[in-house]
Write a structure and sequence with these properties.
alpha/beta; Amidase signature (AS) enzymes; eleven-stranded mixed beta sheet; 11 strands; binds glutamine
C-alpha cells in the first residue's frame, strides 16, 4: 500500500524502487473515488494524471535526475487557470468555461514535474467561510461529516485532509486557506501579498488575493512556496525581492512572540481554544522565548474594513462576467441591453456573490464613498503602520486562527454577518499583506482539531516557516486522516 509522509521520503522510495508515480497516482485516485461523497473535487484528471505518472516513471527508469516535484500529486482550487481545463470558481456563470492559459504559479509547479490530479470545490468566487456557497454543492469535513470543512478553499483542504493528494493549492483573500486548514487539522499557508504571482488566479479582491498552500509537512509547503515564488512579469504587484531561498532549518534561537490581549479576551473566542493557546504560550516561555501581551485596540474595526474593501474590489472585478463573450447567457429573449446583462448575471451568480456585488457597489457610490470606502482605506493604512511598529519589537504574532472549531453544516444559513464576524482573526494578515500560517497543533474536547496561527513581517515567509517547522516538531500535531 502507498503511504505518503513527505516529498523527500516519497523521492527516496521512488529512487529505491519501492514505489512508483503510477502507484502513487492510483492510490490517490482510488481514495478520491472512495471519498467521493465528501464532494471535494469538481473534476478529476484521471487519464492525464496516469499518463503523466507513466511518463515520469519511464524518465526516472531511464536514469534522468528527478526534478524538485517529480511525481508530486497536487490538487488545485477551481479558481486557478489551467490551460484547456475547466475553471468556474464554483459558479454557474462560468459553467463550461475552459482556461485559455495556465496560471504562472501552476506553470512553475508543472515545470518541476508535479502531477495535477484535479480541481477542487470551493465557495463561489472564493466568497465564504464554509464551502456551502458553491454551485456544485457543499463539501463535507472528513473528520465529522456533519461539519463544514471551512471555506472558501474547502475542497482543497479536504483533498489533503482525507488523503486524496499530497498537497493542494487554495486562495486566501481573508483566511480561505488558514481557516479551512484549522477546521480540517492540516497546515495552511498564506504567503505575504505579492509573494506568488496572481496571473491566472480568478480575482475576488485583487489587493488581498494570494495563492496559498495546504499540506501536512512544513518542508513540503516550503518547497512549493519556493518554486511558486519565482518572479513573473505578468503580475506587476509581485514582491521584487525574488524567489525565496531553499528551506533549511537554522539553529533555533529564542524568539520574541506577541499575543494581542483583545484577541485572547474576545467574547467570541471558545474558552478551550483560548486556554490551549495560553498554555502553549507558557511552554514557549519556559523554553527561553518571550511571549508578550500587547494592546491592540483596532480589533473590532478589521472585519468591517475587510468587508467594505473586498466587496468594493469584487464589485469591480466581477463586472466582467456579463455573458457577452463567455460565461452564462440567459435564454430569456430580450431586446434591451440592460435586461440582457441583468438576466445573465441574475441567473449566473449565487446569493452570496450578489450580496457582495451590491454591497461593494453601495460603498463605492457617490455620497457613501467617503463614509465607507475611504474610511476603510484609512483603517487599512493604520493597521499597516501598526504592523511596522509591532515587528520592530517582535519576531512573530501568535493568534488563534478561528474563534471556534468547525461549525455544523447549515449553522450560519440565516445570518451572513455572523459568518463574516468569524473571520476576525484571519483578515488581519490580508489587510496588512503579511504572511500567516495555521498549524494543526490542537484537539478540542468536541473531537475537532483547531490551529495556531503564526504571522511574521512582510517578506519573512522563511522565518515563518522555520518557526512553523519547529512548533510542528515540538508539539505533537493532530494527525490528518
Ligand atoms: N471568509 C472570507 C470571505 O468570505 C475569506 C474569503 C477568502 O479568503 N477567499 O471573504
Amino acid at each position: 500500500m502507498f503511504v505518503f509522509n513527505s516529498i523527500t521520503d516519497y523521492h527516496h522510495q521512488l529512487k529505491s524502487g519501492t514505489t512508483s508515480c503510477l502507484q502513487a497516482v492510483n492510490h490517490f485516485l482510488s481514495r478520491i473515488k472512495e471519498k467521493a461523497h465528501l464532494n471535494a473535487f469538481v473534476e478529476v484528471y484521471e487519464k492525464e494524471a496516469l499518463a503523466k505518472a507513466a511518463e515520469l516513471d519511464a524518465k526516472r527508469n531511464a536514469g534522468e535526475p528527478l526534478k524538485k516535484l517529480h511525481g508530486v500529486v497536487i490538487a488545485i482550487k477551481d479558481v486557478i487557470c489551467y490551460k484547456d481545463h475547466s475553471v468556474t470558481a464554483a459558479s454557474a456563470i462560468l459553467k463550461g468555461f475552459n482556461s485559455l492559459y495556465t496560471a504562472s504559479a501552476l506553470q512553475y509547479l508543472l515545470n518541476e514535474d508535479a502531477i495535477i490530479i484535479g480541481n477542487c470545490n470551493c465557495d463561489e468566487f472564493a466568497m465564504g467561510s464554509t464551502n456551502e456557497n458553491s454551485s456544485y454543492g457543499k463539501v463535507l469535513n472528513a473528520l465529522d461529516e456533519t461539519k463544514v470543512p471551512g471555506g472558501s478553499s474547502g475542497g482543497s483542504a479536504v483533498a489533503v485532509q482525507a488523503g486524496m493528494c499530497m498537497l493542494s493549492l487554495g486562495s486566501d483573500t481573508g483566511g480561505s486557506v488558514r481557516q479551512p486548514a484549522d477546521f480540517c487539522g492540516i497546515i495552511g499557508l498564506k504567503p505575504g501579498y505579492g509573494r506568488i504571482s496572481r496571473y491566472g488566479l480568478l480575482a475576488y479582491a485583487s489587493s488581498f488575493d494570494q495563492i496559498g498552500i495546504f499540506g501536512t509537512h512544513v518542508p513540503d509547503v516550503a518547497l512549493l512556496l519556493q518554486i511558486m515564488s519565482q518572479p513573473d512579469k505578468m503580475d506587476s504587484t509581485m514582491d521584487k525581492t525574488g524567489p525565496l531561498p531553499a528551506f533549511e532549518n537554522p539553529e533555533p534561537t529564542p524568539l520574541r512572540y506577541c499575543l494581542f490581549s483583545q484577541v485572547m479576551d474576545h467574547p467570541s473566542l471558545d474558552p478551550e481554544i483560548r486556554d490551549n493557546i495560553n498554555a502553549l504560550a507558557e511552554k514557549l516561555e519556559t523554553e527561553g522565548n518571550t511571549v508578550t501581551r500587547l494592546d491592540f485596540e483596532w480589533l473590532d474595526y478589521i472585519v468591517p474594513a475587510y468587508y467594505v474593501l473586498t466587496t468594493a474590489e469584487a464589485s469591480s472585478n466581477l463586472s466582467r462576467y456579463d455573458g457577452v463573450r463567455y460565461g452564462h447567457r440567459s435564454e430569456k429573449a430580450t431586446e434591451d441591453l440592460d435586461a440582457f446583462y441583468r438576466n445573465n448575471r441574475s441567473e449566473g451568480f449565487g446569493m452570496e456573490v450578489k450580496r457582495r456585488i451590491m454591497l461593494g457597489t453601495f460603498v463605492l457610490s457617490t455620497g457613501y464613498y467617503d463614509a465607507y470606502y475611504s474610511k476603510a482605506q484609512k483603517i487599512r493604512r493604520l493597521l499597516t503602520e501598526k504592523i511596522t511598529e509591532i515587528f520592530e519589537g517582535y519576531d512573530a504574532i501568535l493568534m488563534p486562527t478561528v474563534p471556534s472549531t468547525a461549525m455544523s453544516i447549515g449553522q450560519h444559513d440565516k445570518d451572513p454577518v455572523e459568518m463574516y464576524l468569524a473571520d476576525i482573526f484571519t483578515v488581519f494578515a490580508n489587510l496588512t499583506g503579511i504572511p500567516g500560517i495555521s498549524l494543526p497543533l490542537f484537539s478540542h474536547s468536541n473531537n475537532m482539531p483547531f490551529g495556531l496561527q503564526v504571522m511574521t513581517n512582510k517578506q519573512e515567509e522563511l522565518p515563518l516557516l522555520h518557526i512553523a517547522d519547529r512548533l510542528m516538531q515540538q508539539y505533537k500535531p493532530v494527525r490528518a486522516l
